[in-house]
Amino acid sequence: MRAHVPRTLIPRTVIPRTVIPRTVIRRTGKAAALTAGLVTVAALGTAAPAHADATLVVTTPYPSIEAQPGADVKLSLAVVSATPDVVNLEVGGLPDGWTTTLRGGGFVIHSITSKPDPGATADLEIAVPPDASPGEYPITVTGQDASGGRSEADMTVVVANVVNNGISLTADFPSLSGDPGTAFAYNLKVTNDTPVQQTFTFDPTAPQGWTVTANPTAQEKAQTVTVDAGADTTVNVSATPPATAQQGSYPIDVTVTGANGATGTIELEAVVQGTPQLALGTADQRLNVSGKANSEKRVPMIVANSGTAPLESVKLAGTAPSGWDVSFDPAEVASVKPGETAQVTAIIKPASDAVAGDYSMTVRASAGSLSSNADLRYTLEGSRTLGIVAIAVIAAAFILLAGVFVKFGRR
Length: 411
Fold this sequence. Notes:
By secondary structure, this protein is mainly beta. The chain folds into four domains: 12-48, no CATH class; 56-159, Immunoglobulins (Immunoglobulin-like), CATH 2.60.40; 167-272, Immunoglobulin-like (Sandwich), CATH 2.60.40; 278-385, Sandwich (Immunoglobulin-like), CATH 2.60.40.10. Helices cover 11% and strands 49% of the residues. It has helices at residues 22-25, 29-43, 384-410; strands at 56-59, 64-67, 72-81, 85-92, 99-104, 107-108, 111-114, 120-127, 135-145, 150-159, 167-171, 175-178, 184-192, 198-205, 211-216, 224-227, 232-240, 248-258, 263-272, 278-282, 288-292, 297-305, 311-319, 325-329, 332-336, 341-349, 357-367, 370-381. β5 (99-104) and β6 form a beta hairpin. Mean pLDDT is 81; it is low at 1-53.
């Protein structure tokens, strides 16, 4: 059936027969009439729909997008033609390692039936490799119908730099305190802020001599954990200081890295409270001391701190026999750092009437609730003058006795 055009409006000489190709005229039914009408209107100079100038058009609403390494990108495609037709689709220009999938109606497709505007739609899924370098990557989707019509849709995927924003790390209690040799246990919440599922690894670090581990809550021996896009998981971090760790604050750093290069870090704090240890002894480790009557004896003493916190205000005192005097120089030590010592001198003065012999005494150091004793045995030597006098007295007694025996022996 031919399109109806009034003869009074269009003279025969205006429309050459060659304007309407045979390929158009051979269409039958309403489609042929529509095609003829479009061509006639175009010949008259009347504006026609945009898709009438091309038999096939493939477009995408977002020809340039940005994505992270490891992301899955989904783009919509529109396939428009003047009449329905089967259009084969092909993706070209893919970099090495990149993969694409065409989907429609929930299926993987290779072709689509085109329609007039707004056309038929399909989805293009692009898998960006996790190791993709930052930059622009052009991709082309080509559509070709059965009559040879061809159209290309050019698009660009911009791979962005990943800058420490792909993972969020938070801790219930980022700062903990405890004693040396005991474990500090932290619970971390790891959130996957990337648009795709990621497998994360953990890298905890602590001061030298510490033992530190990080494992998913679900599996304490696992070294990795897989987290869906936008989801989160819990990671347990354990840090154990050595028994000799000194009092102070120590950093525990945890870095989580995704397969696509996304990273997240968090700094935890371990406050080691520490405890001092007090020990008192003589400088030469000998507990036997000897001295002479009526003279002072100076005995070097060592105050040692074998703990992990400073000793403060160490006071010294002594317990000696009645009439003896014990003093110290200095009488108090202000502070002794962990692992260090301080020297004091015990000054012992026996009683003036003390006789030679062995005496017991105790020297004591105290700092708060801590104390330490050193038990000494003091050997008091007699005076040399007294010894001479005693010898003289004994000799005189022998002489006197000898004279008595001689005198009375003659009788």
